[in-house]
Specification:
Elements: H1 3-17, H2 21-32, H3 38-45, E1 53-59, H4 65-78, E2 83-89, H5 101-105, E3 115-121, H6 133-142, E4 147-151, E5 168-173, H7 179-186, H8 188-191, E6 194-197, H9 205-217, E7 230-232, H10 241-258, H11 260-285, H12 292-302, H13 308-317
Parallel strand pairs: 1-4, 1-5, 2-3, 2-4, 5-6, 6-7
Helix pairs in contact: 1-2, 1-3, 2-6, 4-10, 7-9, 12-13
């Protein structure tokens, strides 16, 4: 990377902190591309993290995640909040980039300079999130966003990963989609802080809400634990969105008062550190992971001459810095 590129980072960060959309977009591109400048970018952003409330929105395909996100952004803007949206889309099998569906559906906010919307490709990551999402959240946090919304790709059971990234996790369901069964299968009874039965103008909405409340009521919780509310919304018309925002704000206040916010953010930071460390280990791995040494060890394991753990130890000892 040229010296000129390195000199551009402080300027980009300074402009991003002032809310410059072009600078924010450039920094997130550096994140997605795993640029050599990424280490410098993260260092420059140090001290700006933790100001934005991170809201994760998840749910099975077809429950109206994008419409609900757009409606919530509208309500947040009425409250004077600057909002960042990371819409994790399915990835193109050709370019690896996002298919941009969510960005198209949230076009009503495209001209609002206090709303930053970015589609990011999941790139095959099974957790419903792009690997670079935590870094992108840091960029939007530094850009002065009061709320950063992370909307996951609709991949069903693996979407539970969003709970590890968000301060508050909103789980959306819809009537007539077998969501009661899906809720139990996907483990979303454990990850949701607020639940909303969207498209509640459809038949079966009341039943879906009752079933979900019953299942949540059966979960074991401490006396001082948060009790997730179950609301009904029609995001396409805005019905129930203001009440939903009130519950999200109530949860944010509870997080701060109970100390749970600090605990969740520490766990999130731990995940980021682990991810960076693993990436560095993969870089050190280099050709060892596909070279003759690994093939020879694999052959010895296959014949029973060596066990997998001993083979792994021997392989790691041969890595740079592994002695």
């Amino acid at each position: 990377m040229t010296r000129r590129g390195a000199q551009a980072v402080p300027d980009l960060v300074a402009r991003a902190r002032e809310g410059d959309p072009a600078a924010v977009a450039r920094l997130i591109t550096l994140v997605e591309d795993a640029s050599p400048l990424l280490r410098e970018v993260m260092s420059a952003l140090r001290g700006t993290a933790g100001r934005a409330h991170v809201l994760g929105i998840t749910g099975a395909p077809g429950v109206g995640k994008s419409t609900s996100t757009s409606a919530l952004v509208t309500a947040m803007r009425r409250a004077g909040k600057r909002v960042g949206v990371l819409a994790i889309d399915p990835s193109s099998p050709f370019s690896g980039g996002a298919l941009l569906g969510d960005r198209v559906r949230m076009g009503d906010h495209a001209l609002d300079r206090e709303v930053f919307i970015r589609s990011m490709g999941a790139r095959g990551h099974l957790g419903g999130l792009a690997w670079s999402t935590p870094h992108a959240v840091r960029v939007l946090d530094a850009a002065g966003c009061d709320v950063v919304i992370v909307e996951t790709v609709g991949v069903g059971q693996s979407e539970v990963e969003v709970a590890g990234l968000a301060d508050t996790t909103l789980v959306l369901l819809a009537p007539g989609m077998g969501d009661g069964i899906q809720a139990a299968k996907a483990g979303i009874l454990e990850i949701g802080d607020v639940y909303a039965v969207n498209k509640s103008d459809r038949e079966g909405a009341d039943r879906t809400r009752r079933e979900l409340r019953t299942m949540l009521g059966m979960a074991e919780r401490r006396d001082d634990a948060w009790r997730p509310p179950v609301l009904q919304t029609v995001a396409s018309t805005g019905e129930g969105i203001d009440r939903l925002l009130e519950e999200l704000d109530r949860h944010a206040a509870w997080l701060a008062e109970s100390g749970e916010l600090a605990r969740r953010r520490t766990l999130r930071a731990r995940g980021e550190v682990e991810a960076v460390a693993l990436a560095a280990l993969r870089a050190r791995w280099g050709s060892a992971g596909s070279g003759a040494d690994l093939d020879a060890l694999a052959a010895r394991v296959a014949t029973g001459d060596l066990d997998p753990y001993a083979a792994a130890d021997e392989l790691l000892e041969g890595l740079p810095g592994g002695d």
